Each structure stands twice: as structure tokens, then as C-alpha cells.
């Protein structure tokens, strides 16, 4: 997982509340277990018409928002089913930070496990950021200091210390397990001596 420290981008604004995971990545694209290749189908039903052509007035189809790394969305983002493909699709598109006033719990936690920073701030604070989105100007996310910086303003945000550490150090669940590989090996060796019948080798 890539390390997340700071991020600078023009934010793309998607002013819809209750965006569920089926809207983020529809069920017909869940057959793959690969984390790559899903970006082209992100927000599929909003991005493409019935003939598969891009809908021009959808924000992520417009310059420069089609290259945005920061998505600002309505409240309760990521509700619905718990599919991990949702953060995979966002990440593959290039979005590594989602800002909203609230998130669905499972989606929120899945973001951290996949290298995406979900930032909770108030609706009033979001309005300040939208001015920069409309003017197509960059904002800066500083995870270490837990700040969104734009112009001469800054917004503080809260984040769990452990989740913050995992993003900054690029640690997903597998990497966290590998950090304990010595203890795992020691335990397995002990079990081979005490209960050899449970091992087939």
C-alpha cells in the first residue's frame, strides 16, 4: 500500500447524499478479485449513457476534475453493501482522499485498509472548500498535521491514531501481519513440537 503523507489536488465535488457502494461500483463489476482495472467503471451509471458514452456534465468526465485526487461528496458516503471493490475503484481512478460530513462505517474503515484517507468535516467547512473546487484551484491535505490547507485558511480534522499510522507508513492488513512474522514463526515452531499431528508436512 502506498504511503500517504500529503496530497495536493483540485477537489471534484459530487453534490449527492447517500451515495451507496452500488453507485460507486455497480454489482456487475464485482466478479474480479483484482484491485486494478475498476477505475474506468467508477460511478458507471452516472458517468456513461446507455450507449457507453461519457455524460459530459458529470463532474469526473470534465477537465480538470477527471484528474482529481480529492473527491468532495454529500453526507453518508459509501452506504449500502460492504463491498471492498468501492475503495478499489476510487483508488484505481486516482482518488486517494474523500471528504464528506459523514461516511458509512464499513466503507470508512475499508478506505484506510486500501490507502484512501476519508476526511470528516462539517457542511459549513465543506462550503469553504467548494469555492476552490469551483475556481479549479488546488487544496492541500496534510495527514501528519491533520489539516486541510487552502489559501490562508486551514481546517483541522480528526483521525484515529492507529489508522493514521497505517496510512502514513503504508501498512495494510497483510503488512501489519508481516510485522509480526517472527512471533508467528515462533508460535508455529512451538506447535510443531507440542502438537505435530496438526501439521501435514
Topology:
Layout: E1 6-9, E2 11-14, H1 21-24, H2 44-47, E3 70-73, H3 85-93, E4 97-100, H4 105-113, E5 117-120, H5 123-134, E6 139-142, E7 147-150, E8 153-156, H6 161-169, H7 173-178, H8 181-194
Parallel strand pairs: 2-3, 3-4, 4-5
Antiparallel strand pairs: 1-6, 6-7, 7-8
Number of helices: 8
Question: What portion of the residues fall into strands of 2 or more residues?
Answer: 15-25%
Name of the CATH architecture of the largest domain: Alpha-Beta Barrel
User: What's the N-to-C terminus distance?
Assistant: 32 Å
Low-confidence stretches: none
Tell me the structural class.
Answer: alpha/beta
Order of helices and strands: EEHHEHEHEHEEEHHH
Approximately how much helix is present in the residues?
25-40%
How is the main sheet built?
4 strands, antiparallel
User: Which CATH C-level class of the largest domain is it?
Assistant: Alpha Beta
CATH superfamily of the largest domain: Aconitase, domain 4
Measured on Cα atoms, how large is the radius of gyration?
20 Å
**What count of domains describes the coordinates?**
2
CATH topology of the largest domain: Aconitase, domain 4
Q: What can you see in these coordinates?
A:
This protein has 201 residues and is an alpha/beta fold. The chain folds into two domains: 6-170, Aconitase, domain 4 (Alpha-Beta Barrel), CATH 3.20.19.10; 172-201, no CATH class. It has helices at 21-24, 44-47, 85-93, 105-113, 123-134, 161-169, 173-178, 181-194, and strands at residues 6-9, 11-14, 70-73, 97-100, 117-120, 139-142, 147-150, 153-156. It has a four-stranded antiparallel β-sheet, covered by helices on one side. A four-stranded parallel β-sheet has the order 2-3-4-5. The mean pLDDT is 91.
